[in-house]
């Protein structure tokens, strides 16, 4: 009799576990949480994709416009330093600094 009670208890508890599990997986809260998680992952993917595109656009724009500007400014600075050095060697007074 004690073994029958245990069997019934174990069968009942196993069935209750399955029904409880099915109720939990079909509950509105779980379904809503799944939808929110899926929406969050899709938004994250879209954000990462658009951020990557923006980084690519900024990087290539800097390479096309910024790097040549930096090189031109460096050449201009070297040219000005060379003029000052030549003027000091020749003994003439250095030209006043140009304010642009």
From TrEMBL:
- Keyword Nucleotide-binding assigned to the entry: answer is no
Q: Keyword set for this entry?
A: Membrane, Mitochondrion, Mitochondrion outer membrane, Protein transport, Receptor, Translocation, Transmembrane, Transmembrane helix, Transport
Where is it located? Mitochondrion outer membrane
Region Disordered, as annotated, extends over 1-25
Q: Which InterPro entries does the protein's record reference?
A: Tom22, Tom22_pln
The record's family statement is:
Belongs to the Tom22 family.
As for membrane topology, the entry says: Single-pass membrane protein
Bias-annotated ranges (Polar residues): 11-25
Q: What is the recorded name of this protein?
A: Uncharacterized protein
What are the transmembrane regions? Answer: 54-73
A GO cellular-component term linked to this record? mitochondrial outer membrane
Q: What is its main location?
A: mitochondrion
GO annotation terms (biological process): intracellular protein transport
């Amino acid at each position: 009799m004690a073994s029958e009670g245990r069997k019934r208890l174990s069968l009942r508890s196993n069935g209750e576990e399955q029904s409880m599990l099915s109720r939990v997986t079909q509950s509105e809260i779980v379904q809503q949480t799944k939808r929110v998680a899926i929406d969050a992952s899709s938004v994250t993917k879209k954000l990462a994709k658009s951020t990557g595109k923006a980084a690519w656009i900024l990087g290539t724009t800097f390479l096309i416009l910024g790097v040549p500007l930096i090189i031109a400014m460096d050449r201009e600075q070297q040219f000005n330093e060379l003029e000052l050095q030549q003027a000091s060697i020749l003994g003439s007074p250095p030209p006043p600094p140009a304010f642009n």
